Amino acid sequence: MARFLSGPLASAARHSLLLGAPAPAAGGMEPRASCLLFFFLLGTSGFFQSYAVEVDVKDASNATCLYAKWMMRFLIKYETNSSDYKNTTLHLSSNVTHNGSVCGDDTQAALLAVQFGEGHSWSINFTKTNETYQGDFITFTYNTNDTAVFPDAKRKGPITIVVKDIMRPVQLNNVFVCHNTDFVEAENVTQIFWNVTVQAFVQNGTISKKESRCHADIPTSAPTVPPTVANVTTASATTLSPAPTTAPKPVENPDTGNYSLKSGNKTCLLATVGLQLNVSRDKPLLININPKTTSADGTCGNTTATLKLNDGNSTLISFTFVVKNASASVQKFYLKEVNVTLLNRLNGSVISNADNNNFSKWDAYLGSSYMCRKEQTLEINEDFQVHTFNLWIQPFLVKANKFSTAQECSLDDDSILIPIVVGAALAGLIAIIVVAYIIGRRKSYAGYQTL
């Protein structure tokens, strides 16, 4: 049963979930679940529509065994009939169901599953140990037969992606909460989650009062400040004073942040970089990414690694690195893809999104790091640029939590200036000698008179 309520969302939490096939509840009985949909109208000009889903799965004794409340949306890139690609946003609709959700037990994973719109579905399954539980896999199916979302899709029918969830273990009998935005990318789909509250394997049918907060929700000693924005007349990141066609540089370059990822207990990715976003859509806008309010997430692998940065729940930037064979025995890594998403701080709605997966930059030998202290520009599309400063990156084979020997970019290599300067000096000297010789010849010629 679903009903609509207007008003603020009562609780929030972060996403992290896993997917699996539906299975009957313990004892052979299907669990019962109630599904509440909260309806919001937000925005200053017109209305923005968003839905929050609340699912309360109950066991055979009518006790809550799995509880979740969250908001999410999906950014999808799909191929059109004209063989180009378009980006679309899929929102939760009002007709959400929860068929197939499972309580889980010591031998069976818990499953949270919802269905919405014209043939779309999403699910995550949870596993547990004696002390903790965590999300395992997320499964998302979108149906390109939904012409309202995919009006000219070349491929028709359901498309399913499965992605490993990166949720950290949560103590049993604790509820996981995350107000900040989290996102997962896989196969041309970005899944965005915010205001998430979840507890799997609920004990005694009562949602716990003990909260386990996501890292992004934990306050730091530094105050939370918005990104530095050029020509901002109010606190809004989208309200700008008149600006010239070319956005002026901020007075200062962005601060340099230090980021890292771990695989188990070992550091698998290191990054030091100052980031500045240049948005030219509608009005020019420069945003300095603030390391003090930016959290790092992502995945490491043997041939692919992704670093995802979330600045204050308003700017998401992800960098994907891959390994290539430079020769039969030599491998290199390089930057392959950059994705940028701007979010509305108030409701998590997507203001704009851009992606470029055709980069071939920042290449270095596998096992080393890449460094470029000078400013570099990454062209995402005609509306988005990412400027990097003081870059030092190693996405693979990190040892002892330290950067390996760096390969520097040509912009940093001052040694190439020496032959240029010497050559220019020699050319100038030769020019002076030639001019002096010509002038001397003319004077000598003028000294002879005809008898």
How would you summarize what this structure contains?
The protein has 451 residues and is mainly beta.
Which structural class best describes the helix and strand composition?
A: mainly beta
Mean pLDDT: 79
How far is it from the N-terminal to the C-terminal residue, by CA? Answer: 123 Å
Question: What are the low-pLDDT stretches, counting only 5+ consecutive residues below 50?
Answer: 1-30, 37-49, 221-248
- The DSSP helix count reads 1
Strand portion: over 45%
- Percentage of residues in helical conformation: under 10%
Question: What is the radius of gyration computed over CA atoms, rounded to a whole number of angstroms?
Answer: 28 Å
SSE pattern: EEEEEEEEEEEEEEEEEEEEEEEEEEEEH
**What's the β-strand tally?**
28
Coarse shape = elongated
Largest sheet: 9 strands, mixed
List the main descriptive attributes of the protein structure presented here.
451 residues, mainly beta, eight-stranded mixed sheet, 1 helix, elongated, disordered N terminus
